[in-house]
């Protein structure tokens, strides 16, 4: 369908170009006829495009009825849209559209259609749609998770995976995870010793240690306090956590009514802007102070395996590259190839008066008596043809700088062994290397690594421990599995693959509690079809992971927490990812491995070392809060060390 539209526009464009060329050859006196022809073709083109759209055999998705102007906004008042979306899915089906003010949003509520959007139709639905709050907090998409699919995204994601989240990086950061889990267990033991019959606040211990790990991975140190000049004061770790994690998570769901009525964006909303800008300013000042402190460490010669050191070393190499490349590029392109091409073009035109005249007519036709400007270039096909023909005939760069094949490859059906020189484009290579990050982007990427590591893993582990604490039978089953595999030894990451029940607990927790209930919004940047419906360009897309995980056609008794449902999957590992808790396709969660390693080892070690029981009254505390499904009330449990018999 999209291809069809393209073909039509190419055909019409071709006709239009031909028309321009012909008119250039005719006399200027015939211009009214040319203009009339142009207008007619313009309308024909629009008509054909509209017919293409109308003739789409796909209907629009069902609409949830709303009010004039505001659409469905009033129905979405409570801050848990995933639940309202899931309720609507029962009435309007797995895919429907709603109106949030003047915006149209399509909501996807089943695995099939969500996968179609995230995987099959990715190329039409890869751009992020950000609220005004997120635009400020993400410094206009300067983060991997919130950026569109572009060069910045690819570079930044490569850095994040290479230095921090990819399998090799995770091996290098293993020591931090082991230390973190040991610290947590020690603190639980210390609590029992001091207050044997009092409930422990699970979140307080887990959150602080997890945040410490995220700081170590990002900037190399679990910072306990820092002086920030802009604030004129020293911040504690608690303050740092608030500014870097809690405030932005809250800010991310702040609503600016102008999000829903973009045509009113000229009206100021000062209280909203001040609030979000202040969060941004605080984060900015604090991140700068943290980075400066670490720069002193680096200058003193102490390197640490962390994201900051990696980014700086990359940036340094790139700066040198870039300086060299810019010099080279400026010199070679400005003073050489452009000259070569223009000189050859003028040579050809000077010896060919007919073509020179044709070009002149073309220019006069478009510019009249005015001088040619860059804006007019797109209307001068004959000029473009002269440029390209000169490039073809005189090839200013006859052979591209050499490269060599660094691993065996096939080219044109032949085997090309490693080490063979290949003609390729050096410029592209330099350009990609020069794709350097600015200081602000680096700050944002470091902050991203901190906030993402500090939140969802806590959410998942806290809910898993809640479920296990209220279910002694399943807790016992897990303990037996661990004892069977580890005997009296403490569980380590190497043993995870032998613990299917633990994996089932992890995945069932992700399913029932969907830590990221709605995938960060995307919008459709070219007309697409989803689930048999036509989705026009500009539509916002909300993928309701929570709704998918509560779908009765896929999950039996979806409200129950039943890890055994994942044991039936037996060898089929794809079954484990049926929850789509980490998203799917190219934008699937980059931190899934880290989340799984931390959460699974923590759950297993906590159950190995303690017996867990909910504090009285805690069972009813199932409410959630925020962008992710944070337990509203921190988990309170009574713990008893196992070795006490
Ligand atoms: C249980 C824990 C986690 C869950 C449920 C989760 C879930 C998600 C989801 C649903 C997405 C969006 C996928 C999409 O847009 O299609 C995402 C993206 C992302 N997550 Fe996670 N996440 C978790 C942990 C983490 C951790 C620990 C980190 C880093 C330390 C992390 C880093 C990221 C990044 C960088 C992206 C963007 C990936 C991209 O756009 O290519 N996540 N996550």
UniProtKB/TrEMBL annotation:
Under SUPFAM superfamilies, the record lists: Cytochrome P450 (SSF48264)
Q: What organism is the protein native to?
A: Sesamum angolense
Matching entries from InterPro entries are given as:
Cyt_P450, Cyt_P450_CS, Cyt_P450_E_grp-I, Cyt_P450_sf, KO_chloroplastic
Please give the name of this protein: Ent-kaurene oxidase, chloroplastic
Q: Does the keyword Isomerase apply?
A: no
Question: What does the record give under GO molecular function?
Answer: ent-kaurene oxidase activity; heme binding; iron ion binding; oxidoreductase activity, acting on paired donors, with incorporation or reduction of molecular oxygen, NAD(P)H as one donor, and incorporation of one atom of oxygen
Q: Which PANTHER family match?
A: ENT-KAURENE OXIDASE, CHLOROPLASTIC
This protein's cofactor list reads:
heme
Its localization reads: Membrane
A GO BP entry is: ent-kaurene oxidation to kaurenoic acid
Keywords annotated in UniProt: Heme, Iron, Membrane, Metal-binding, Monooxygenase, Oxidoreductase, Transmembrane, Transmembrane helix
Membrane topology term: Single-pass membrane protein
Q: Where does heme bind?
A: 589
Q: What's any one GO cellular component for it?
A: endoplasmic reticulum
Main subcellular location: membrane
Tagged with keyword Heme: yes
Per the record, the similarity remark reads: Belongs to the cytochrome P450 family.
